Amino acid sequence: MLRFMPVGDSMTIGSAGEHTWRYRMWQHLRDTYGGPFTLVGPRETLYDKAADAPTSYEYADLDFPRAHLAGWGEGWQHMVPLIGEAVRGHRADVLLVSLGLIDLGFYTNAEQTAENVRAFVAEARSANPRIRMVVLPVIPNVRAETDALFAGEVTRFNELLAKTIADLDEPRSPLLPATPPPSYDINLDTYDGTHPNASGEHKIAAAFAEAMYQAWDLGEPYESD
Question: Are the beta carbons of 27 and 117 closer than 8 angstroms?
Fold first, then answer.
C-alpha cells in the first residue's frame, strides 16, 4: 500500500466545514491510482476557528482517511523536528508538502527558510532513505499583493526552493516540484485572499497530482468536478 502524508500549514489542515485539498487529492487518487493507498500522519483534526484550536472532526465524508501532519500557523521550521518521527512512525512513502507562507510572514527570511527546507529533507530521509517528496512553492496570497517586502521574500524563497529541490533530488529519494496552475486567482480561488475555497482546493490538489503523473506516471491527469 502506498502511503501519502500531507504536510502543511493552515491551507493544508483546513478548518471546520471545509473539504481541504487533502480530500480532493484523496478523491483523485481513489479514482485514478489503481492500487491500494492511504493518507497517513500523526494528526487527524481540522482547525476550529471558534475554539481557536485544531479540535474539529467535522469532515463531510466519513470514508476520507483524515491523517496528516499539518497545523494552523506552522511552517518549515516547525515541521523540521517533527518530520522524522512522523515518517518513521507512520511509514510514509510520499510527502505532499505545502509550506512557506507562515515562515516568511512571521519567522524567517527566504534564505533561512530555504535552510529549513534542507533540514526537513535530511530528517525525512533519515527516517526513510527512499522517501519521495512533492513540494509546492508559496502560492499567490493577499499579503504579497499589499506588502512589497513580503512579496520580494516570497519571490526569493520560491527561487531558492527550486534550486534546493534541484540540488537535493536523487534517484532513490526523488524530490519533485509542484507547479500551481497559472489560473490560480486569490479573488476566485480563496475565501479570504489566502485560504482556498472549493476551486482553490481542486487547483492545489491538481498541482500535486499533475507533478506525480508527469514525473512518476502515478495516477492520471487531474479532473475537477
Answer: no
Q: Classify residue 164: in a domain, yes or no.
A: yes
Is pTM beyond 0.85? Reply is yes
Instruction: Give percent above pLDDT 70 in the chain.
Output: 100
32's CB contacts (< 8 A; 6+ apart) are 219, 220
**Where does the chain have alpha helices with state H?**
10-13, 21-32, 76-90, 101-102, 110-127, 142-146, 148-168, 186-189, 198-216
Domain count across the chain: 1
What's the rounded Cα separation, in Å, for the pair 77 and 119? Answer: 9
8 A C-beta contact, residue 110 and residue 157: yes
- Write the CATH number for 65: 3.40.50.1110
Task: List residues bridging with 38 in a β-sheet.
Answer: 3
Judge whether 222 lies within some domain: no
3-state secondary structure of 40: coil
The pLDDT tens digits of the residues spanning 112-131 come to 999 999 999 999 999 999 99
pLDDT at 60: 76
- Asked, for residue 75, whether it belongs to a domain, the answer is yes
Element (H, E) at 28: helix 21-32
CA distance 127 to 141: 33
Report if residue 205 sits inside a domain. Answer: yes
